[in-house]
Amino acid sequence: MRQSTFLHRQPIANPHERFLTRNMETCPTHLTGRKRTDWLKAGRKAQKNHQLLSTLDLFHWPASKYDSPIFIHRRTSEYHLYGIIHKISKVHLYTIDTEANKPTRQYPHSLPALIQIQAIHDENCSTVIIIEVQHLPPASSSLFHSIQQLCQMIFSSSNKIMAWGDVKKELGPFEDFNLFDLSQVSNTLDLQKYFTKLWNETHPHTPDCLARHQPVIDDCISDDILVCFVNSDDIDDEFNPHNPTEDYNTCICPTEIRPYKAKNAVWSLQKAVEFIFHQALDKSLTINFWSCGLDSHLHTWQTDTDKRTRQSLIAYAMNDLFASTNLYFHLNNTPSSSSNFTNPIHLNTIQFNTPFDLPLFLILADSHAKYFPPVITTSSYKLIIKSISGLQWYGRLPEIRHHQLCIQFNNQLHQQHAEQILTFTDFDEQSYYNWISHEH
Fold this sequence. Notes:
Elements: H1 4-7, H2 33-55, E1 57-58, E2 70-72, H3 78-87, E3 93-101, E4 111-122, E5 125-132, H4 142-154, E6 160-163, H5 167-171, E7 188-190, H6 191-202, H7 207-211, H8 232-236, H9 269-277, E8 279-280, H10 304-332, H11 335-340, E9 360-365, E10 375-377, E11 382-387, E12 407-409, H12 412-421, H13 429-439
Parallel strand pairs: 1-8, 2-5, 3-6, 6-7, 9-11
Antiparallel strand pairs: 3-4, 4-5, 9-12, 10-11
Helix pairs in contact: 3-4, 9-10
């Protein structure tokens, strides 16, 4: 479904700002019932988000673990798409998320806008793809068929697709774009349920909480019983004696152990990041016009503020992916997780199992290398390929004309440090002459 009217709306820089002063005293008197409840709930969520941001460090995924995001839309070149397909052809683990314009009075239905995809080469290296579905080329075009090819390769039964929530529900609203066959998305993992299950199993209810639900057997039971008072909690108690690790509404456990007090409750991604990493995942941009055209090559922005807001939205969209993936690796690297989960996930194909004495080479290349997998491992060596946009090789310099730049590392930490500090300006002509003058 496409709706061109939405495309002309510019994104909102700080949509949460108007919610921060909401409380019982400021609630409009004409709001009653469900509308009043929703109005106050939006205020509480914004205030909670603001509190987290002011007390915790922001969630951060190191830039060395991923390249710049790749945008897919009508201005993407087919040559670029072929390179992406080649780069991720051997990836079999993906994290996805989606964004949509929320319903408004004028447009009562949400509008699908983005599919965010994190292709996970290994725990320390990913390729991020953002598909802007409201800016796709015509379905009859060759470019569209190439985008279909990319999506069908990703959303195939041979790949594991993860999301913070039900994967098929995330992708369902995007099925009408004919980018993929949802029936082929069969190997999925709901990280939200996975996390909730593991948390509950490793953080059982306290003895005091469970003691409230022990059966009481009277020594003498009369045939005639007079009920004088009924506690509604006794009637509505959601406690399940056959599965005492589940959440229930009469739970009295400390919030640090059991933050949720309802049956079938699942964790928000923000709360999971808060509890596990002690960081704040900013959710202030959730309600926005995601169909605005994030990539600058679409030329949908009007002012510098519009451009900066788009950069914030891009960071938000990627952080939702990175947070989910980081939690996944955290759970699978925790020794207790495999024994507590009845269907553990095996990561043999993506975990770093190469011994450290294997020769490790860092290859620095220009932008053409972005189409190669960032990590290539053989039985004899391991290659780390770093693409540096703007890198130039000055062949007219006699000292380096017949030489190649190849840096070998025997220590993984040294290699990671080098990736972080080396930039393309370290290899330009001016840097070379500076080095020559310093040496001589």
